[in-house]
Design goal:
This protein has 188 residues and is of the alpha/beta class. Helix content is 48%, strand content 13%. The protein contains nine helices and six strands; from the N terminus they run ααββααβαβααββαα.
Length: 188
């Protein structure tokens, strides 16, 4: 069977693989351009995302949209945005390992369908899951990683930058600028 985005969305909407399915309003699969040279992966939907069925739509989403526009010269419609889990964890807690494992095949399928050259990971949960590490994010950011031929760049979650002040936002801007350079290198 050939996988496609519509099939992935249907599978995600029918998923009951973990306890998060029982309390969700909507499944937040992801959105954007498929295929895309850039995929951004966060941790999991918050309350507003669960309500609207879209990733990164609250204050964090506003900052993410601004960074995408200012540092990448793009819009969210020109890239693909997803999370490691597709249903909202209660009280916006971090997704548990078993919840991330339950969504792992959906994220793997998204990566194959989107076929990005660069993946930007937002926050320690996404970094830990995708890179398979428990090393603190502060020790990982600023470096490039290879995931089967895809360049991976870890950075802070926009919510952390909103709480962390100008220094964290500046570090995020540097990471986004690195993404921009990598994407420009691949253009004819």
């Amino acid at each position: 069977m050939v996988d496609n985005l519509d099939l992935l969305i249907r599978d995600a909407q029918a998923c009951q693989a973990c306890a998060l399915a029982a309390s969700r309003t909507q499944v937040v699969v992801g959105e954007g351009c498929v295929p895309s040279d850039l995929m951004i992966i966060g941790e999991g939907p918050g309350a507003r995302e669960d309500e609207l069925g879209r990733p990164f739509v609250g204050r964090s989403g506003g900052l993410l949209d601004r960074l995408i526009a200012e540092e990448l010269g793009r819009t969210r419609e020109q890239i693909y945005i997803a999370n490691v889990v597709k249903c909202r964890p209660p009280n916006n807690r971090d997704p548990r390992p078993e919840e991330m494992e339950a969504c792992a095949s959906l994220l793997d399928r998204q990566l194959k369908l989107v076929a990005p050259r660069v993946v930007l990971l937002l926050g320690r949960t996404a970094v830990g899951r995708v890179l398979g590490t428990k090393v603190p994010l502060g020790s990982l950011r600023g470096r490039l990683y290879d995931l089967g031929g895809v360049t991976v760049i870890p950075t802070y979650h926009p919510a952390f930058a909103l709480r962390g002040g100008a220094a964290r936002l500046t570090e995020m801007r540097v990471d986004f600028a690195r993404v921009h350079l990598l994407l420009e290198e691949g253009r004819p």
